[in-house]
Amino acid sequence: MQRLDKIISNLGYGSRKEIKVLARKGFIEVDGVVEKDSGKLVDPDKSVIKINGEQIFYREFIYLMMNKPDGVISATSDSREETVVDLLEVDHQAFEPFPVGRLDKDTVGLLLLTNDGELNHRLIAPKWKVDKVYYSKIDKKVTEEDVEAFKKGITLDDGYVCKEAILEIIEATDEGSEINVTIQEGKFHQVKRMFEAVGKNVVYLQRIEFGGLPLDEDLEEGEYRELTEEEIMHLKSF
């Protein structure tokens, strides 16, 4: 059972104060009866709730896939910078989602957002070994020696030894390289620092897969969509 105003507010129909006004004016019905007490306890899974004659369908959690653009930070709010949550429609912001893990400000690609704290924990906790795949352009030639070094575990500048990473060379020339790298951690600037440890620099970084979910190719940078039921169940299988 939940308070009626909380149920309606979570769906983006206004603040609890605004919903209280709607109830007093007789715009809210529960199971066919006008309900003027916005604090009434209701089972959203069993009761039929209508606002101004329109039935609402309650859900507690929201799951989104975004193609994060360059220059936007992976945070829920910031006084100076634009955040990924700022890119969401108001109806989705109402669920108060947060990014699963983070992408650096200048890193683009797949970012998941949800208000499901339990799933968020499972996806970012190292013990669940969730793969994150990145496509990157490197300023120098990436070699088989680098592949072996990543497999053994790169030591970062602060002494941290990374877990095994899979480095795949797509193309490598003296002018630069294109690679895919798969990691299961999320240390600060990790991919960039891993390449710096072998004397190379990342010039472009895009996350293309998270937990087996590929970035939706139909999403332009800055766009997002809700996950399908199949995608949600896949993430919950970890």
Automatic annotation (TrEMBL):
The keyword Isomerase applies. Belongs to the pseudouridine synthase RsuA family. Its EC number is 5.4.99.-. Coiled coil: none annotated. It comes from the Bacteria. Residues 2-60 form the RNA-binding S4 domain. NCBIfam families: pseudouridine synthase. Gene3D superfamilies: Alpha-L RNA-binding motif, Pseudouridine synthase I, catalytic domain, N-terminal subdomain, RNA-binding S4 domain. The keyword Disulfide bond does not apply. This is Pseudouridine synthase. It holds the Pfam family PseudoU_synth_2. Keywords: Isomerase, RNA-binding.
